[in-house]
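Researcher: Before we compare anything, I want clean individual predictions. No alignment, no superposition, just each chain on its own. First chain goes here; please echo the sequence and then give the structure tokens.
Model: Echoing the first chain and its structure:
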Amino acid sequence: MDKIAIIINNKQSLEVADTLRKELDHVEIFSVGAYDGTTKIESINNFLEKDFNHYNAFVFIGALGICVRSIAPFIQNKQIDPAIINMDVKGQFVQSVLSGHKGGANHLAKTIANISGGTALITTASDTLNLWALDIIGRKYKWTNEYFNTTENDFIAAFVNGKRTALLLDIKDEGSEQLERTLPDFVEVFYEFSAINPKDFDLIIALTPKLYETTLPVLFFRPKCLHLGTGAQKNINAEEYEAQVLNFLEEQNYSRYSLVAINTVDLKKDEAAYKAMSDKHNLAFNYYEAEALNEIDADLLFSEAAHASTGANNVSEAAALLTSGAKSLLVEKSKHVDSFGKHFTLALAMDVRQERKAGFVTIVGAGPGDPELVSVKGKKLLQNADLILYAGSLVPRRLTEYAKEGCVVRNSASMTLEEQFDMMHEHYKMGHSVVRLHTGDPCIYGAIQEQMNFFDHNQMSYEIVPGISSFQAAAARLKSQFTIPDRIQTIILTRGEGRTAMPEREKLTELAKFQSTICLFLSATLVDQVQADLLAAYPPETPIAVCYKLTWQEEKIWRGKLKDLAKIVKENELTLTTMIVVGEAIDNRKNRSKLYDPTFRHIFREKS
């Protein structure tokens, strides 16, 4: 938990200090003058002498000279010094004074400047030169830094001075993609260590779980990507287990810092050696039922001992594969024994989401149509994709303009499902990044189930990135809140009954009885029946909105009454990409929420 101490030395600083206290967590204001709302201290020097290392950050409001003279006697080194910020009494200038990177002063200065509306003053070279902050860039991605043949300060100094640098990317994750997108001009990317000629470079930065030898200065970023599978007899020696696991990793040329989890069968969930290593090295500890381990389809060797004691055909290898999602092992099962004759097995697998050589499919929600409404993650995936297969009848081609040079962009509208599969599978086998781009949110009438069945059957790795649905875009364009306090607290997403039959309990005549806000997908061609079904429960004067191509350049919206719904749709010849909204929530401006009522008490605001 970060603790921030704000130190003020005049009453004029109290207003901005109090604003920071409201906006930031775990803040306390200190003053010699004992101003209202502050904690009195006898002197700044005495306070710092006692508490300099008890706070994560100190914010001085006032003259920079006072700040510098106050902290000077207590500064030790950037590994342990807290963040120090100095700002003027109006919050116009917020300066990072000490521990800019490691202590987080640069980030805190920018945060405070955003609150005060001021300017953050950052003088760290890597920030001003727009270079990677090597000492902290890995925090976001949970990488561990390891330096070989150099010290941290020497390596960073050489990098900031533009020394020739080789960047090795053995794995693929959000962080590796960020490095590739922001590559300085003196850095060259490699995907195999053997391709790096030491004579051509002064430094190496390697994002890898592997151990490599070189005479060059190296910064290893160790990603959390290795899953250890393990099985054991009862009560193995904890210290010997840890030592042999670490030795096992080293012998296989993998870094201990890339280990993310210990995985086993549920009958071993209380094994003390597993728990001890998990706690000491901050590893996840996962255990699975024997039935789940037996379902792993990887042609694993049957273990009579494991099956007799746990019911699992194989423990260590199956557990490693199950938790990692991988289809093959990095290291097959090896057998070990402690000094008391207790046996255990170890196996290793790579997190499938970080495998670089494997292809990957992402089903991305394109949003309602406006290219700027795709998610940030979705945009990044489009920018890095090798194949974009988009539903052209529903997704604007403008969204594919995010594609990089060389990316294959294809419209799936005229393709059969099998043709789509063949194309995605071919790119996947080549190790490519495939984006299947669906309109709105792919989980709402996205027809993705049969695609996921195909990916599962062919053991292809994939994930789903949600998107903004057209019903959300409708609310935004109608400037309407679809849930109204005391009146409507439910939104129904459904469709009219056409060739796809509706379950009896979900027929529109039944759903209409709830008098909720109903958002109808894929129903413009069924409008006569839709209107008749809704009129069975809604009054004819119920507000409706017919929204065509929401957020597209061709967007059109018609408002009206339920009794006129069919007429509006037919007169405007609407078929595809039409969202129909029904309910009194449309354009409603009544019924105030209790959330911001001054008489309503909650954890963030006391009752007035």
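Researcher: Okay. Second chain, same rules.
Model: Second chain and its structure:
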Amino acid sequence: MTSSNSAQAPGSVRRRVAAGAAAAFLGLAVASVSGMATPASAADSATLTGIVLGVGANEAQRTVTWYSSADTAQKVQVAPTAQVVNGEFPADAATFDATGAANIATSGGFNRHATITSLKEDTAYSYRVGSEGNWSPAYSFKTQDFEGDYDFLFFGDPQIGSSGDAVKDGAGFADTLDVSLAANPNAELLVSGGDQVETANTETQWNAFLASDKLRQYPWAATIGNHDVGGKAYEQHFTTPNTDRTAPYYDNGNPAGTKSGGDYWYIYKDVLFIDLNSNSYNSANGGGDAAHIGFVTDVINKHGNEAKWKVLTYHHAIYSPADHAKDSDNKVRRVDFPTVFSKLGVDLVLQGHDHSYSRSYLIKNGEKANPDEQPGAADVYPGPGGVLYVTGNSASGSKYYDITKPDSSGTSGAGNGADPLNPNSYWYNSVQNQEHVRTYVKVQVRKDKLVVENVRSGTCAAPNAAVEKGLSCSNTPEGQPVGSLVDKVTVHPYHGDDQALQVNVPNVAPGEFGWTIDGYNGLVDLGTAKETNGDHFEASGKINPLIVSDSRRSLAPWSISANVSDFQDADKKFSGSYLGWTPYVLDGGAGATAAKPVASGYDDQGQGLSVSRGLGSAEQGHPRGAAKLGADLNLKLPDSVTKGGYRATLTITALSS
């Protein structure tokens, strides 16, 4: 069992604290911020275009990338929006020098990029790019609380130009951005599934992709697709953090060649995101899947304990339902990736490429983790190694692929056999969908779960280029309107290293003694700690009750005890001694009596629950039967503890002679 709490106190950031044990966060709703135009000065020495806001290495950073017609020194200027008056930035506005180089000949001009650092939480910012006397229009974004629940949106293949009409495709993508962000104005990241454009170096397609100001107001976490990789325009348009651009992460094995590439990672509010260039899958050049596996392993080994969730993104969907499901290269990845992802504790994999929607069953080591998991289950409970794979449908309507049929090639590994529970689907997919309408995926990161939704952003009506050009459409606006759900699943994570201790202790058999947690062993949320008396924080909650059953003839004595680990959030922690409890008997039976209360160590300078303490017991000769034990938890801790989302584990021990 795990316990958790988030805390927020008034005053400075230093004095805010969150304590928790499995996934404790503080959520904050914030309104969206619109772009704010500012006229440039008269001395236009360079034309500045293609501005796009990107994700940084953490929630306190953003990147900005743009094109310039002139090779001049440029920068990003940033100030709190409240300090920008009548379009004028304050004299002390922060500036960040840009770097860049000449674009390839077909793009023309030059590229520039800079990283904005040291952003403050819960602040609206305005920014512009260029130089004194030649600034771009200004745009705005807003940071939210750097701890807590949040939502991010995932977009499958816009592939602008795929329909043959970049204008129509761009209109569809812009409409999806408008619809999704109108419905989710507090979304904090826009995550790409790859294939931003149809033709890697065609700037008219990039212009249509970048037309929406939403891409200057919300950070876009770019992913390389097979249609992006063939030229350098992708690298010219996007700057990504912590990027390894050495040879193994390029499919031609040569970063100085004509293709884009690189793997990268970042941490955003307790989610570790890792993005792979899945175009490089052949190991002939020393790269490919083996190199990606090494990259993922290294990042998780070094940084996995800094986050509570692990999300991977790459373009080529290994568990998808349509035209690419049986591609030979995807079958290779389907063998190479899953076992490693399971062993590394990956929670969610987001993919593109197949222009249709699918949600896998929980996959462990390349096989369905639980053969009994039902198609379309609304709630799933991955044990250790269970990974959810999601394929995004088209976000623009430029191209859709229809779902294909299973074959007899097997129901594990690289096979594309039928699902025994749903023979029209592949063995690995819980949900498959294609209506020829635009969709996006919303991921809610919550205290003790991930909620994944596929949401319609359009109907058969325009803008929907593929349908406008003659493709059939099965959607009806009355039955499946914009904003309606195609699919929704809640992922409830596994808690604890020892299944037997945490959740999977079997029910007792007749004539035996044992205990089990009453119901699903979910997060024990201690809520939000409150500042008390100006010197400490307090939070409270209840453990998940334990059912103790004893049907032995010997009627021997028994006892249940527990102790808690330190509360930890990455490299921040505080002692479990600050947690105390008051045990009680909910349902009498088996001679159960409650143990004595244990004070928080904050009150008596003691050890609290950091050492083993009794919950309940029964003496020799007690009656047979079952009891339900509970306890009220009381957390008190100094206000010097640093703000964070802390985790701890309460370990249960049963003794009987």
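Researcher: What stands out in the second chain?
Model: Residues 141 and 217 are 5 Å apart (CA to CA). Additionally, DSSP finds ten helices and 40 strands in the chain.
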